Amino acid sequence: MPHPHSAPVPTPAEAAQWAPERVVELARSHAALQREVETIQHQLEWFRRQLFGQKSEKRPLAPHPAQMHLGEFPLPEAPEAHDKPVAGHTRRTPCSDFAHDKNDAALFFDEARVPVETITVANPDIEGLTPDQYEVIGEKVSHRLAQRPGSYVILKYVRPLIKRRDTQTLHCPAAPAGVIDGSRADVSFLVGLLLDKFAWHLPLYRQHQRLLDAGITVSRAWLTQLAAQAAALLEPIYAAQLASIRTSRVKAMDETPIKALAAPAWAR
Fold it and tell me: Nearest Cα to 170, choosing from 179, 159, 162?
């Protein structure tokens, strides 16, 4: 690639004879070249970070003291590494997921969120013995992860219909109100529908197939209508969050650099 020829630098006497228009033109050219050099340097630094810097977007420190991470909580500081002498013949104890592990007391699930079904295993050694011939001195517990054919349940509301003998009038309590009037979908089903689609990326047609496999016959268009109606219920939350972002002094953004362009005139 040929190098461009640089113009000779004028002497002070030659520059003093220039017209004011030429001086202004040279100043503008110098400012434009300076901006171009700063842009090229910024691009060069970006390419250097891509080639020789860290590839992960996880950064333990925020660029601004008020800037927070996407998880809305600052990441914990990494513990200081300490050297520890290890014998050459020692090995790390392997982790085991066996159901009969001796350390099964350390639960691998949250008892407050996961339903637990207790199954009592009969002891064949006490068959034919009376209760006074043995003594239960303890028990051993093991856990296994199981799955049911479907996680859906039908809520059956039974409303008694009564007739008063004194007035001969009929009385029946109203059905519990739902978030969508007249819909057969419970609020728990709407939440699961949106989470499966937008959080776990499970399309509606696959959710429809799962419902059919679980013995529930509904139309696929019904799921589409439910998703749209449930999303409309969340619109006030979206509007409140957007208003909070607009009025906030500090905006929390992703660390990935992107070009922020102004919206076109027709979209304003």
Answer: 162
pLDDT score of 62 more than 50: no
Distance CA 98, CA 189 (A): 34
d(CA 191, CA 103): 36
User: Rounded mean pLDDT of the chain?
Assistant: 81
Please tell me whether residue 153 adopts helix, strand or coil conformation.
coil
- The one-character DSSP state at 80 is P
Q: Is the pLDDT of residue 64 over 90?
A: no
**Domains of the chain by residue range:** 15-44, 182-248
Closest by alpha carbon to 63, among 256, 261, 262?
256
Answer yes or no: are the C-beta atoms of 229 and 180 closer than 8 Å.
yes
Instruction: Say how far apart CA 232 and CA 229 lie, in whole Å.
Output: 5
Distance CA 90, CA 163 (A): 81
In terms of pTM, does the model score above 0.85?
no
Q: CA nearest 184: which of 159, 212, 204, 154?
A: 154
C-alpha distances in Å from residue 189, one per residue of 35, 192, 223, 244, 262: 57, 5, 10, 29, 40
DSSP 8-state assignment for residue 165: T
Query: Quick one: which H or E segment has residue 163?
Result: strand 162-163
Give tens-digit pLDDT for 14-54: 778 888 888 888 889 889 999 999 999 988 888 887 776 65
pLDDT in tens, 142-159: 888 887 777 888 999 999
